[in-house]
Amino acid sequence: MNEPDRQEAAIDDEERKVALDPEQEDVVDDRRAASALIVHEIVRRQGIEELERPAASLWWSGLTAGIVIGLSLLGKAVMETAVPAGPWTPLLQALGYALGFVVVVLGRMQLFTESTLSAVLPLATDPSARNMVRTLRLWGLVLLANLVGTFAFAGFAMLGGLGVEQSRELVEASGVIFEHMGMAGFLAGIPAGILLASVVWTLPSAEGQKVTLIILLTGLIDLGGFAHIVAGSAEMWVLMLHGDLSAGQGLAFFLPVLGGNIVGGSVLFALLAHAQVRGEIESDPVRG
């Protein structure tokens, strides 16, 4: 008897110590949390679907996500200026910041930082040149589409599409990226990458609580002073179009934060999430 079979037999033996009728057994099974292997497989298959999507579908989904994520910047700016300042202000800003993520995640739009987990699990499960190329294709296309989308949002806002007052509020709220230059941006990007990967990982087990989960995890990015590359790029474009940020400063923000998000979402979260189930996958006779 191999190790997984031995473990399963031991679990069955322990479960039989409490006698339940079939109906009660069904209730227990329904309320039991999904195992890490099940969650891993759900997210992995989502990643496979993303990797197989046509380039045009990825582009338009990523472009839409980039535009919609601008709601995070707008929500934060509105919460900061529309409500009297007080101890609750940071919490309200975090709530506003989470708005764009709620729409993007529930709308199944293509956001780069979500792909740092979902697209990596197929590669971690089956390391190959083909899967590496597919992953890089997805990342590059989605990131570019996200950036074009955030630029469109920032351009619309700075041209007065949201009103003069709102434009001024957006510029003020965007100033936070000056704190995320160079190594500071890289370090601030790591927790943000982990938090976005956590959203993807926990959503399959969060039926009925998805909105709350997204708000808590993405709101913490703003509350903790972390840096998200797509939402942050909207802030970057706003400041560049307003003349407050040079191209060099923009790169000093963008590249380190991008690296931090990838390290947090892929190198840390995705590979560790895969490591905890790798033994079960390798011992599965169906998978070989």
Structure description:
With 288 residues, this protein is an all-alpha fold. It has a single domain, classed as Glycerol uptake facilitator protein, CATH 1.20.1080.10. The protein contains 14 helices and no strands. It is globular, with a radius of gyration of 21 Å. 44% of the residues are buried. The model has no long low-confidence stretch (mean pLDDT 85).
What's the quick description here?
With 288 residues, the protein is mainly alpha-helical.
Detail the topology: elements first, then pairings:
Blueprint: H1 3-15, H2 22-31, H3 36-52, H4 55-68, H5 70-82, H6 89-106, H7 112-118, H8 120-125, H9 129-158, H10 164-174, H11 182-202, H12 210-223, H13 229-242, H14 247-282
Helix pairs in contact: 4-9, 5-6, 5-10, 6-12, 7-11, 7-14, 9-13, 10-13, 11-12, 11-14, 13-14
Number of domains: 1
What is the CATH topology? Answer: Glycerol uptake facilitator protein
Order of helices and strands: HHHHHHHHHHHHHH
How widely separated are the two ends? 17 Å
Name the poorly predicted regions: none
- Tally of contiguous helical segments: 14
Q: Structural class from helices and strands? A: mainly alpha
CATH superfamily (homologous) name: Glycerol uptake facilitator protein
Overall pLDDT = 85
